[in-house]
Structures are given as structure tokens and as C-alpha cells.
Design goal:
Layout lengths: L2 E14 L2 E14 L3 E5 L6 H8 L7 E6 L2 E2 L5 H11 E5 L10 H11 L4 H14 L15 H13 L5 E5 L7 H18 L2 E6 L2 H6 L2 E6 L2 E7 L8
Parallel strand pairs: 3-8, 3-9, 6-7, 7-8
Antiparallel strand pairs: 1-2, 1-4, 4-5, 9-10
The structure holds adenosine-5'-diphosphate (ADP) and magnesium ion.
């Protein structure tokens, strides 16, 4: 198996006042390159905690996470930031777009942060806008867009640097059914087109119909791990 992420006996303990609370209990998982998968579980089951650890936004209390054989725990702050910048795209429930910027500028922004000149990446941004179906909305600001359109911008921003892995924490939680399906179809298409792995968290059944692998979390433990090919039922 061609793993992009290896999670080995990861434990996460949060200290709340004088009490320790174990949010993840010895999680071990492999995530394949190009995967389209979700962590499924009720609120509080540890989905966000696990995504944050994979994203290098937080460290496990014990155990290790490897990205392409690099152990995240051995990277210093600068190297971790570099890891995120080069390899990851993030999509959030609440879109997290910059409100004063247009669609075009929101997608351009990560490229400018990497030191690119606008003139050199303009076409790339335009192509990305087209890939998410927003060419006719390019000058609008987030407040002038629907939730579904905002999430399309966020997906384009996450993908524009062609990362190997997109982490999406409850990406359809604020969308109605129709928009959720459209966003999931779009992500599935982009997963095939760009070959980026998409790892979601969700408790939404609509998401689970689309993914090719579901990992069930409950109280910080993996309870099941199901795979399917195409759109058949999970095995
Ligand atoms: N920073 C934190 N400090 C203390 N407890 C936390 C913190 N973050 C999450 N938790 C707890 O860890 C558990 C898992 O949380 P989380 O990963 O956010 O779950 P989910 O995303 O599945 O809803 C919950 O019981 C939550 O209250
Ligand atoms: Mg969460």
C-alpha cells in the first residue's frame, strides 16, 4: 500500500483543570495516497483532534504520525509550518475566507504568501476558479456568495498549490442537502483530477455515501474501517 500518512498508536490527552481527559486512545491507521475517506462519529468522538494532529496543528501525547516517512514529532515549528505549507490544504466548516478579498484574491493569497508574483500565477488562479465553477463570480466578496459558493472558494484555495493531502473538518455541516451533494461531487471530481488525498471528518450521512473509505470513531477509538469501490455499498 502506498501510504501518505501513517498513524501509529497515537494517544491524545487533554488536561482540563486538574483532570486528564483522553480524547484519542492508541489510534493506528494508514491513509493511502489519493484516498477519499472520512472519519465518522458523533460530536466529541475525536474527529477534529485527529485531523489537527495529521495537520501538524497539535502534537500527540504519545505515538507518532508520519507523512511520507517523515515523523511530524521530529519537526521544529518552522519545519512543521513548512510541512503544512507545502503538502496540505485545509477546508473548514465555516469556510474561513478573508472577508475583504474577492473570490480571485482569496485563492491567490496562498500563492502570494509563497512568494509568487501575481502575474506569474494569474492563469493558475483563473483555472482554479473555473475548476470549482465560479468563473462568473470571480470579483465577488464572500458576503455576496452563498454558503455553497463560499465552500467552493475554500476548496479552490486549499487545492491551488496542488497539495498531496486535503484535510476537511465537517465541510458540509453548514450546507443544505443540495449544496452538500454538489460540494461532495466537486471534491470527488477534484480528487480524481488532482490526485490529492481528501480526508474528511463528518457525522453527515451524505458525506459517507460519497467516500471510498469510512473510519468510525467513538470515544476516541477506531470502531470500524470500511472500504468500497466506486459507489457500491461499504464492506
Ligand atoms: N483543547 C481541548 N481541551 C480539552 N478537551 C478537548 C479539547 N479539544 C477537544 N477536547 C475534547 O476531546 C474530545 C474530542 O473532541 P473533538 O476532537 O473536537 O471531537 P469531534 O470533532 O469528533 O466532535 C471531546 O470530548 C472534547 O471535549
Ligand atoms: Mg469536530
Amino acid at each position: 500500500m502506498n501510504s501518505i500518512v501513517s498513524i501509529e498508536k497515537v494517544v491524545k490527552v487533554y488536561r482540563v483543570g486538574s483532570e486528564d481527559f483522553t480524547a484519542l486512545h492508541e489510534i493506528s491507521l494508514e491513509i493511502e495516497a489519493g484516498a477519499f475517506m472520512s472519519f465518522v462519529g458523533p460530536s466529541g468522538s475525536g474527529k477534529t483532534t485527529l485531523l489537527n494532529l495529521i495537520g501538524g496543528l497539535d502534537q500527540p501525547t504519545s505515538g507518532s504520525i508520519f507523512f511520507k516517512n517523515v515523523k511530524l514529532g521530529e519537526l521544529n515549528r518552522t519545519a512543521l509550518a513548512e510541512y503544512r505549507r507545502k503538502n496540505l490544504g485545509f477546508v473548514f466548516q465555516t469556510y474561513n475566507l478573508l472577508p475583504v478579498y474577492s473570490v480571485y484574491e482569496n485563492i491567490l493569497f496562498p500563492l502570494l504568501l509563497d512568494g509568487n508574483k501575481e502575474s506569474a500565477v494569474r492563469q493558475l488562479v483563473m483555472d482554479m476558479v473555473a475548476s470549482v465553477g465560479l468563473s462568473d463570480q470571480i470579483k465577488k466578496r464572500p458576503s455576496q456568495l452563498s454558503g455553497g459558493q463560499c465552500q467552493r472558494v475554500a476548496i479552490a484555495r486549499a487545492l491551488v498549490k496542488k497539495p498531496a493531502l486535503i484535510l476537511a473538518d465537517e465541510p458540509t455541516a453548514n450546507l443544505d442537502a443540495e449544496n452538500s451533494y454538489q460540494i461532495l461531487e466537486l471534491m470527488r471530481e477534484l480528487n480524481k483530477q488532482f490526485k490529492a488525498a481528501f480526508v474528511f471528518s463528518t457525522h453527515d450521512e451524505k458525506v459517507t455515501k460519497y467516500v471510498t473509505r469510512e473510519v468510525g470513531l467513538e470515544d476516541g477509538r477506531v470502531c470500524w474501517d470500511k472500504r468500497r469501490n466506486g459507489f457500491g455499498s461499504l464492506e
